[in-house]
Amino acid sequence: MSSAPQLVVHRDKELMAQAAAARLITKVVDAQAARGSASVVLTGGRNGNGLLAALASSPARDAIDWSRLDLWWGDERYVPADDPERNYTQAREALLDAVPLDPARVHAMPASDAGYEDADSAAEAYAAELAAAARPEDHGRVPAFDVLMLGVGPDTHVASLFPEHPAVRETERTVVGVHGAPKPPPTRVSLTLPAIRAAREVWLLAAGEDKAKAAAIALSGPGEIQAPASGAYGRARTLWLLDQSAASELPTSLYPPASA
Ligand SMILES: O=C1O[C@H](COP(=O)(O)O)[C@@H](O)[C@H](O)[C@H]1O
């Protein structure tokens, strides 16, 4: 099952971050009410961190039972644990250090000094962690994440799946080591498209002028090898959350007139 993308366009990136944070709170609260716990995959990058910061400053964040939330990552820069470029470190600064999470449910991807031989072995270990968390009803090797968020890069990359790169062609493994990424740092660990597509909902975040071309290309239907963002979809829903700048090169037929 896959879902056609739905688009929501907000006035600017601040409003987009606040609205997406509100949407995430509701989604997590609903999943916890329905299933006891919720699982969310975080993204790195400016838009993802903006959303986390908006969540941190929202009074409604207390509606979430943080102890019953599993957090995973879509990708990680393969750098030492104390490197400020790590997506995990940036997420901690934006939100995670301020909320009462259960540390056993915070599934950071390994740092380069965590004792693995290389990014490929680190990826294998993360794939094993995901497989161990998948329940029989998830029907796969990764949990059926409630929400998986992806920041869309200006070149249409999502997670660490870059256009024409070997990682975006992966059809078997759920997590791979990425070598020679065009955006620094060159070595990374990333979920693959098959793992991303196991999520119930995939949310693609694109705010800012530098995302306009990427959104237009990804939503105009090229293949996922050329535009990885176009291959990211959820089983129940695929949602593009944009601001007007990022939507400026889209045909207006793709979304209703911009709201707030
Ligand atoms: O390097 C990365 O970049 C993308 C997008 O980042 P942005 O700053 O252009 O919004 C992000 O989705 C990914 O997680 C991250 O590792």
UniProtKB/TrEMBL annotation:
Keywords: Hydrolase
Catalytic activity: 6-phospho-D-glucono-1,5-lactone + H2O = 6-phospho-D-gluconate + H(+)
Pathway given in the UniProt record: Carbohydrate degradation; pentose phosphate pathway; D-ribulose 5-phosphate from D-glucose 6-phosphate (oxidative stage): step 2/3
GO MF term (any one): 6-phosphogluconolactonase activity
Domain named Glucosamine/galactosamine-6-phosphate isomerase: residues: 12-240
E.C. no: 3.1.1.31
PANTHER family: 6-PHOSPHOGLUCONOLACTONASE
Protein family membership: Belongs to the glucosamine/galactosamine-6-phosphate isomerase family. 6-phosphogluconolactonase subfamily.
Function, as annotated: Hydrolysis of 6-phosphogluconolactone to 6-phosphogluconate.
Protein name: 6-phosphogluconolactonase
Organism: Streptomyces cremeus
Species classification: Bacteria, Bacillati, Actinomycetota, Actinomycetes, Kitasatosporales
